[in-house]
Amino acid sequence: MTSNNNTACLDEAKRVAIFGGTHGNEMSGVTLVNLWMKNGSEIQRKQVKTKAFITNPKAVEKCTRYVDTDLNRAFTPENLSAPGGHDLPYEVQRAQEINKMFGPKGSPEAYDVIFDLHNTTSNMGCTLILENSKDHFNLQMMNYIKKAITPASCLVLLNEHPLLKYSTSRSVAKHPVGLEVGPQPQGVLRSNIFEAMRDILKHALDFIELFNEGIEFPPCKVEVFRLLERVDYPRDANGNIIAMVHPNLQDGDWEPLNPGDPMFQTFDGNTIPYQGFGTVYPTFINEAAYYEKQQAFVTTRRETLVASAIRKA
Ligand SMILES: CC(=O)N[C@@H](CC(=O)O)C(=O)O
Ligand SMILES: [Zn+2]
User: Which residues form the Succinylglutamate desuccinylase/Aspartoacylase catalytic domain (predicted)?
Assistant: First the structure.
């Protein structure tokens, strides 16, 4: 044996899927996946079988986030095992179909990696979303992508929160990766956002190819932003919003927010400051899809994770 015993030997990642249209009005993912379904040469690698797939075709057709319920919250054990067939909400039926095709979730037959392509109206730039801080394959992938896209940058959002974590489409895979790029309005395609997403995918697939070829990746550190809490807009007794994101906070995704810093602005011009305990890094600031989820932004904390060395078993 040449490699030392601290190297994690992991299964090859042969089966990879790229999901677009989990939200039907997020146009970069919808457009890239439609492109790649017509001609997949860009996403093929010698040692990887990559399938591009539109997850919510009805929502894509209507150019809406969802038809009955949010598909990216639908992959719960209850939904995936619910009887009812065609009487179930459309996205629950779809979740069951996707789970059959790419899962079953949590089983050895599940796809190795699923990239799920999203756009945000927030000024987040390129953000990769992880669900598990102990997934060393994904952590190594993050490190690889960050280095490969330099001088451009991308950040990693980690959602391991016991209450705020949700059951994503990508969670069907062994290694789920969300890709969130913004700002881009709903229903709009912007070339810079489209190309940034495409570039990240290229490097992600290159990483998987190298891994499958047998390259050993040495230990590394990865900076992540861990999801801490969600902050709602101030509302009246009827649930109507009574303040907006403050101009100092608007578009300031990933910039430090300190106690006392302006957070909301009421319609008569009063400032509501942030009253947390220490510095946090807000993101998903003023995301259009989150008004209905009672969320103005989320706070995160910066952390450095260590990825152990990995290679193919
Ligand atoms: C704006 C948006 O849709 N964001 C995604 C984030 C994710 O994929 O985890 C969502 O809420 O499902
Ligand atoms: Zn989305």
Answer: 13-208
| Rounded Cα distance, 196 and 233, in Å | 30
Task: Give catalytic status of residue 97 as yes or no.
Answer: no
Nearest CA to ligand 1 atom 2: 120
Binding site membership of 178 for ligand 1 (Cβ less than 6 Å): yes
As a residue count, the chain comes to: 313
Task: Find out whether 296 and 285 touch, Cβ atoms under 8 Å.
Answer: yes
Q: What is the DSSP string of 197-241?
A: HHHHHHHHHHHHHHHHHTPPBPPEEEEEEEEEEEEPPPB-TTS-B
**What residue owns the CA closest to ligand 1's atom 10?**
72
ipTM > 0.90 (yes/no): yes
What top-level class would CATH report for the domain 8-224+306-312?
alpha beta
- pLDDT tens sequence across 240-259: 999 999 999 999 999 999 99
Catalytic annotation, pick one of 180, 209, 223, 229: 180
- pTM, whole model, 2 decimals? 0.97
176-210 per-position pLDDT tens digit: 999 999 999 999 999 999 999 999 999 999 999 99
Which residues partner with 52 through β-bridges? 18
